[in-house]
Structure to design on (680 residues):
């Protein structure tokens, strides 16, 4: 009578065991990586905004201070997206015919809001407060990255709970003098500059 | 394998249940050989003529299991509000059924593990399907903790997995312990069950005619050749697993009793719950083993392997655990009075004479009065029809025990302003009945495709395995 399993089954059985172990490990690693991947967090993804607003141009190029547009950041839980009025303060006179700015002019003419796409969109069960962070020494760049170098806005950080907790459990590493909150280029203390200096 | 030495007035020639070699009470009928045991058990699996009754049973059971699918689908679509749970009574059928099913599973582990440690030979005939019963009962039970949460899709938050929220389960909640208890229980039960079947799968592989069956059982038997070394390790592993399962069986239902006992509610906050729940689990579990064993031994003509003596022994275990349960009921009443806590006392009064008092008296009737009143008589314990009826009664009674504990403690507690009532909806019933269909379907599949009685363990009980055959005459003479 012929054998049910031929010799190759030995190799297959062993390979099967190893493979099962590998699959389990791979699945674990994959799932762990997946939840932090930009695919889930949308880090670095440039949303398709109605107007390709450039922070780099307005901040680095023109030297606007953050609060010029995001007026309520130190008074409210919500930093605010500037209304069309803020855009029109300048763009009523500058680049008045630019095609890029057409939605802004339409909005101004019709009174319809521009439908900006939120890049930092926390779930509504999170009650994030901008004011407390800004007033207690967390700079814009700590959470939002070098926005002054972003031609199109994207999320620098994950905004996941572990990211919030990492700072809340040890805030000191991210604190800065309140005079430096809006200084995008502020660097923390280093070997050569061991203490905070007002004139970085 | 003895359960009792030969009594002097018994003559082996007269009583066929007395082993003529050892002079011990045999637990399986005489006349079997290695070959006949293999033939008898493997024929059920390897037959090319599946009995029509099996098909009929599977169609009915899977039809009922479809109700389960419907109930779960509707539950996920609409939410737990389709059930009869309310704000004072936020636990209802789901938890009752969960505890009931888990309890049923426990007898399987008791038979396969605890009775192995006590070297009870009579367990051999029933342990395989008792283990299968455990696994399928845990399958049914395990779904309730997931289904009864409002957001079942977040059930994995109960597992201690690294995650981006930096949040872990609360390890102080007995409901979190449930997760570990039930998942460990399920895993160990499956492993124990499977290891036990490996030699039998080997037999099936060798007996099978169809190439596919040969291949399938060959894969399942993992190259079992039955060498001495295999058997040594097999026995050691079985014993170790039995030793591991024994504390497991006691702790799993203890953990489930903690779901209640840890709470501050009168009627729940009782230190007697852990042992009393375990006793109840074994009580109901043995009832379920009987409910399954009696029709199966009849349908497959296994009366010579699952003998009346087995049924008698199981009934005795039921009597023993039933008495512990009765003690539990008595202590609950006594402590309600002795505590001098008027909430406790009211809880007991409400349990007996409140709007759902009928549940309590049904429980007393079904769990205490009928079984404990009758199981003392050997005549009734060996009456198969009566035992079957009784096993169903006890299953119902033990369901009512959980109903009484869960519901009557919840719907009237400390604040009269938060008293309510509990009335199950059709979806509660549908889900419960559906799990019975699922359980039966799985069990029927098991009976058809796996050896329902461990051939290797039965063979070890045959007289031919006894080495001291030479002394047989002496033994008989001594005791005669």
């Amino acid at each position: 009578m012929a054998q049910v399993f031929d010799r190759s089954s030995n190799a297959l059985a062993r390979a099967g065991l190893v493979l099962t172990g590998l699959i389990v490990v791979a699945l674990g690693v994959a799932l762990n990586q997946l939840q932090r991947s930009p695919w889930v967090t949308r880090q670095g993804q440039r949303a398709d905004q109605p107007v390709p607003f450039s922070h780099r141009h307005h901040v680095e190029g023109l030297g606007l201070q953050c609060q010029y547009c995001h007026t309520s950041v130190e008074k409210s839980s919500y930093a605010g997206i500037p209304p069309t009025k803020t855009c029109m303060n300048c763009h009523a006179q500058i680049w008045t015919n630019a095609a890029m700015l057409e939605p802004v002019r339409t909005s101004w003419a019709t009174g319809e809001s521009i439908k900006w796409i939120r890049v930092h969109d926390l779930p509504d069960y999170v009650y994030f407060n901008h004011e407390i962070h800004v007033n207690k020494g967390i700079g814009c760049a700590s959470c939002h990255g070098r926005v002054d170098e972003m031609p199109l806005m994207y999320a620098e950080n994950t905004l996941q709970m572990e990211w919030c907790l990492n700072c809340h459990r040890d805030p000191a590493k991210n604190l800065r003098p309140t005079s430096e909150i809006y200084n995008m280029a502020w660097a923390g203390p280093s070997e050569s500059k061991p203490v905070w200096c007002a004139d970085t | 394998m003895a359960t009792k030495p030969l009594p002097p007035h018994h003559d082996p020639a007269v009583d066929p249940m007395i082993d003529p070699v050892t002079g011990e009470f045999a637990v399986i009928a005489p006349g079997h050989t290695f070959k006949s045991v293999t033939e008898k058990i493997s024929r059920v699996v390897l037959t090319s003529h599946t009995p029509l009754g099996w098909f009929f049973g599977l169609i009915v059971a899977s039809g009922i299991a479809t109700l389960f699918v419907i109930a779960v689908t509707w539950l996920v679509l609409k939410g737990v509000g389709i059930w009869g749970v309310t704000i004072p009574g936020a636990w209802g059928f789901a938890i009752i059924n969960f505890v009931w099913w888990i309890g049923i599973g426990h007898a399987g582990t008791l038979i396969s593990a605890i009775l192995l440690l006590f070297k009870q030979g009579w367990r051999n005939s029933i342990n395989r399907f008792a283990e299968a019963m455990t696994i399928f009962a845990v399958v049914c039970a395990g779904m309730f903790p997931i289904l009864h949460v409002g957001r079942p899709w977040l059930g994995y938050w109960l597992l201690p997995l690294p995650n981006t929220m930096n949040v872990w389960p609360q390890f102080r909640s007995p409901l979190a312990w449930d997760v570990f208890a039930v998942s460990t229980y399920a895993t160990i039960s499956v492993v124990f069950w499977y290891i036990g079947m490996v030699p039998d799968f080997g037999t099936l592989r060798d007996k099978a005619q169809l190439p596919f069956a040969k291949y399938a059982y060959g894969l399942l038997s993992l190259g079992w050749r039955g060498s001495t070394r295999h058997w040594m390790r097999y026995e050691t592993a079985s014993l170790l697993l039995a030793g591991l399962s024994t504390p497991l069986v006691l702790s799993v239902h203890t953990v489930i009793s903690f779901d209640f006992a840890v709470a501050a509610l009168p009627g729940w906050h009782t230190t007697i719950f852990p042992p009393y729940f375990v006793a109840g689990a074994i009580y109901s579990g043995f009832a379920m083993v009987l409910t399954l064993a009696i029709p199966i031994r009849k349908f497959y003509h296994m009366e010579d392997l699952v003998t009346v003596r087995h049924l008698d022994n199981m009934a005795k275990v039921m009597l023993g655990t039933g008495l512990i349960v009765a003690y539990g009921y008595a202590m609950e009443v006594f402590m309600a009075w002795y505590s001098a806590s008027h909430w406790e006392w009211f809880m007991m009064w409400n349990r007996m004479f409140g709007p759902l008092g009928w549940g309590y008296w049904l429980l007393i009737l079904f769990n205490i009065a009928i079984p404990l009143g009758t199981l003392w008589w050997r005549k009734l314990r060996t009456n198969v029809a009566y035992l079957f009826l009784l096993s169903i009664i006890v299953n119902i009674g033990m369901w009512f025990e959980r109903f009484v504990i869960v519901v009557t403690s919840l719907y009237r507690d400390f604040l009269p302003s938060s008293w309510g009532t509990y009335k199950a909806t059709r979806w509660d019933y549908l889900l419960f009945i559906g799990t019975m269909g699922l359980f039966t379907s799985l069990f029927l599949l098991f009976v058809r495709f796996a050896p329902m009685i461990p051939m290797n363990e039965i063979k070890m009980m045959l007289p031919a395995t006894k080495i001291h055959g030479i002394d047989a005459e002496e033994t008989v003479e001594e005791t005669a």
